[in-house]
Amino acid sequence: MIHTLNWYRRHHIEHPDLALWPRAAAVTRDDVTIAGESMTGLARAVGTPCTRVSESAAHSWSAAAGERHCAIVVTAVEAVTVSPEGEGYDLWVDAELDGCEPLESTFRLIGRASRAQDALFVARPCRRYGDLQCILPVDVHAGDLVAFVIARPVALHDIRRRPHHPERLN
Hints:
The strands form 2 sheets. Strands 4, 5, 6, 7, 8, 9 and 10 form a 7-stranded mixed sheet that branches. A 3-stranded antiparallel sheet has the order 1-2-3. It has one domain (2-161): Lyase, Ornithine Decarboxylase, Chain A, domain 1 (Beta Barrel), CATH 2.40.37.10. Helix content is 19%, strand content 32%. It is α+β, with helices and mostly antiparallel strands. The protein is built from 5 helices and 10 strands.
């Protein structure tokens, strides 16, 4: 399993699947830019969660679904906890993930480069526990920024943190 995660990390960092990202996206070790605009800079300027809509890549999931545009969401990590089963981690973010359709394989740590091993995280809050899994460096912690692609653009109020989300009440 560790070998697979290490291979995925090396492959993902050096060759991210840009077909899932917007056409104007450029992915680096510590940032994602859309048409030259840094998503880290955007998050620091306007706060999180924040979103940027851009034209979908030609053969992306969004284009296959008939959507001309997709979006990048940048969210801050609120907490990282050990999963209830004791294997893996839960990644609590300040966006309501049930208000959008994140593409699991696009989750990226931005704002800093990490050389830590990768681990499997369950992104929360979402509709049902375990619905949304992602691979991120194991040293991700509260305050870090995470960017991901959503297949269909959404209004910002659909993903803003709500205090009464069912998963937050448990």
